[in-house]
Amino acid sequence: MTIAVNAIFFQDDYLEGYGQYAISIFSILVRSHPEHQFVFIYDRPHQKEWITGPNVRSVTIGPAARHVPAFLYWYNIKAAWEVRKCKADIWIQPYGFCSLLSGVPQVLVIHDLAYKHVPQTISWHQRLFYQTFTPLFLKKAKRTITVSEFSKQDILHYYPNKANSIAVVSGAAREGFRPLSWEEKEQVKEAYTDGYEYFICVGGISPRKNMLNIIKAFSLFKKWHKSNMKLVFAGRLAWQYQDFMEKLKTYKYRNDVVLTGYVTDEILAKLTASSYAAIYVSHFEGFGLPILEAMQSGVPVITTNNSSMTEVGGEAALYADSNQPDTIAAHMQTLYKNEQIREKMVQKGLTRAQQYSWEKAASLFWKEILATKADSS
Known about the structure:
The chain folds into 2 domains: 2-172 and 357-376, Rossmann fold, CATH 3.40.50.2000; 182-353, Rossmann fold, CATH 3.40.50.2000. Helix 1 (17-32) packs across helix 14 (358-376), helix 7 (211-224) packs across helix 12 and helix 10 (289-296) packs across helix 13 (339-353). It is 44% helix and 15% strand. The protein is α/β, with parallel strands linked by helices.
């Protein structure tokens, strides 16, 4: 069987949620199924081959799909032609879009319907694209995969009877995320926060990630406790970051805020494991891998009670209202003042993270590929 995989998010300069999910799963599938051929299709030149093997081939087909017209052209004409030319049996679409014109059976991955819930965090033309084409994509794909039971029910709510089949294949924390020794943590803190403890927030700087309410919560925490605690944002400057950066210029505790920009996976794992606690209070997420990666690193997690977060965190996280900075700050204070509660959350988190694995995810994903092949035979 020849399996084509859309690899447009396997990017050299940054690799975030969608790309991490696809690479983690297909690294395992390529290794586990050497009898099958995998063709990874890029839309732009790339320096790094993210997945390699004797049964792997990479192809670059431009133009780069950077805006709506380019999406339509690339998916329906350029990439569709390449998939047909390589005689693919299945075409995997990990990023919520698929080709409406290709005759090759497609497996569509939709992480969430954020444009329905937080439309203000997406540009109007992207929002229009999602609203117009998502039901068409669901109808076209032979099978659909999503990352949480929450997202599955969300899709069924907004698009009843559109999808042919929906399966849940959740992600997991990557292996590099693990607890560090005291010495290792001290080295990281010396490098990034002058040796001080810090809260970490992982994710691109954008309205959806709720960065403004995080710094408001940090202000309350600093007001309550005259500590040297720092706040570290680990992520690139993403969509509509300007407002956050402007407010940060006059922020009272600006000297206690560290912006790392985009960092490699290795550095991110060390930053996470060395933190005092992880704050992941996004307004909406289909899953939220940073929650599990912090837990697997032995770090307590403060997250929100919306979307999929309670499903992922279970009883191993502290939950706040994403729109109320005081509830976020209250949990920061709890972890700071009560070491017993903090240690209890660490242990619960370590146990919780073990319930998820990429091997399990890859196995479930493979079942959907085989089912798609069987349906199309």
